[in-house]
Automatic annotation (TrEMBL):
It is found in: Periplasm. It comes from the Bacteria. Pfam families: PapD_C (PF02753), PapD_N (PF00345). This is Molecular chaperone. InterPro entries: Ig-like_fold, PapD-like_sf, Periplasmic_pilus_chap, Pili_assmbl_chap_C_dom_sf, Pili_assmbl_chaperone_bac, Pili_assmbl_chaperone_C, Pili_assmbl_chaperone_N. Residues 1-23 form the signal peptide. Residues 24-140 form the Pili assembly chaperone N-terminal domain.
């Protein structure tokens, strides 16, 4: 019985390992910024594999909804046949109405690889990649590259609060709060929407002692900038660059 199980497991493992080798879509961006002044934006999908695939592209809000989303965008082509090692440009066109003009809007851009052919006893997997699309109205004040430094951090009733007063989304990774070297809070990632405030529960917060906040912001180009702040009870602090020490 055991040898049979081992042989079956080996067969399934081989199938799983073989599937990714057949094809693989690669996007030329980690995020897309749609400036309101632009008639359209585009990105490139590459088929890094040697077999033909279908590349299906669509937008969604990312919210938990059951009905089809009626978003004011056109993604074209929504379905593209790609041969091995081929490239395909995908265009996104905004209908011109339906989104707020005083803040950014964010959507999920999905590109799914659908293998077209299958050999006998070969497992096929439809692989989907998701990146963020930010629609940025023309009249927004401020610099989106400085938005992470505008976040307002404070301690309130034993909790850590952070507010985003800007009209831009702020994406953060590797968020950590420490007090005298002791970890009080960690999070892998978090995105703050415009005008949003979030609160984090802390572990064993010592009264009257400052707390160190460290995180990495992700900008429009996908670049990472480490930031740091020292927060005390009753104060509102903005982070500064951890590499230059400047606001």
């Amino acid at each position: 019985m055991l040898p049979t199980l081992i042989r079956c497991s080996a067969v399934w493992l081989g199938l799983l390992l073989a599937a990714p080798a057949q094809a693989g879509i690669v996007l030329n961006a980690t995020r897309v910024i749609y400036q309101a002044k632009d008639k359209e934006v585009s990105f490139v999908v590459s088929n890094s594999g040697t077999t033909d695939i279908l590349a299906q592209s669509w937008l969604e809000t990312g919210k938990d909804i059951t009905e089809a989303e009626n978003l004011p965008f056109v993604v074209t082509p929504p379905l593209a046949r790609m041969s091995g090692n081929a490239r395909q440009m995908i265009r996104i066109i905004y209908a011109g109405e339906g989104l707020p003009d005083d803040r950014e809007s964010v959507f999920w851009l999905n590109v799914q690889e659908i293998p077209q052919t299958a050999k006998d006893n070969q497992l096929q997997i439809a692989i989907r990649q998701r990146i963020k699309l930010f629609y940025r109205p023309a009249a927004l004040n401020g610099d989106p590259l400085e938005a992470a430094k505008k976040l307002e951090w404070r301690l309130h009733d034993g909790r850590l609060e952070v507010s985003n007063p800007t009209p831009f989304h702020v994406s953060m990774i590797q968020i950590a709060a420490r007090q005298q070297g002791k970890a009080l809070f960690t999070a892998d990632s978090r995105m703050l929407a415009p005008r949003e405030t979030v609160r984090f529960a802390l572990k064993s917060l010592g009264r009257g002692q400052a707390m160190d906040i460290d995180f990495i912001s992700i900008n429009d180009f996908g670049a990472q900038e480490p930031l740091t702040a020292k927060v005390s009870e009753g104060q509102t602090i903005r982070a500064m660059s951890a590499t230059t020490g400047s606001q």
